[in-house]
Specification:
single chain; 143 residues; mainly beta; five-stranded antiparallel sheet; two-stranded antiparallel sheet
Length: 143
């Protein structure tokens, strides 16, 4: 209810207090979704008389994200980049393969995601970081 003397709805004069402040109603970005995310891989095959060896180098990238529905700055997560390598040998007349892999070749440890706990429990933050450089051996067999 407006008590201003110039308020006259019949004459089309609005209440000065109801004019408000204009603001965008576009909403916040979807939480945990990056604007840009891609993966590029290059595979080189090395055939021989006994089998084939493949080497694949992969690059993954994700833009910075925010994991909060309200866009609070403490939930900002930086961009994420990584290189992975996979080398595999498969014989021509066999039903098995053997290989080796290395993930996160640059050994970058960055924040991967962050979320808050229940406000009843104090609203503490839980964060996940990318794994350090990992490597190993693979073996597979079809039967």
């Amino acid at each position: 209810s407006c008590t201003a003397p110039q308020f006259a709805p019949a004459a089309g004069l609005p209440c000065p207090a109801s004019l408000g402040v204009s603001s965008s109603v576009a909403g916040n970005p979807l939480p945990s979704v990056a604007d840009l995310s891609y993966s590029l891989s290059m595979t080189q095959l090395y055939p021989s008389n006994n089998g084939i060896t493949s080497a694949r180098l992969s690059y993954r990238y994700r833009d910075p994200i925010n994991t909060d529905a309200f866009g609070t700055a403490r939930f900002d997560v930086p961009e994420n980049k990584s290189f992975d390598l996979l080398v595999r040998y498969t014989p021509n007349n066999g039903d098995w393969y053997i290989g080796g892999y290395a993930k996160n070749l640059e050994n970058d440890r960055v924040l991967n995601s962050i979320r808050s706990g229940s406000n009843i429990q104090g609203g503490q933050l839980y964060a996940n970081f990318t794994d350090p450089r990992t490597y190993g051996v693979q073996f597979g067999w079809s039967f």
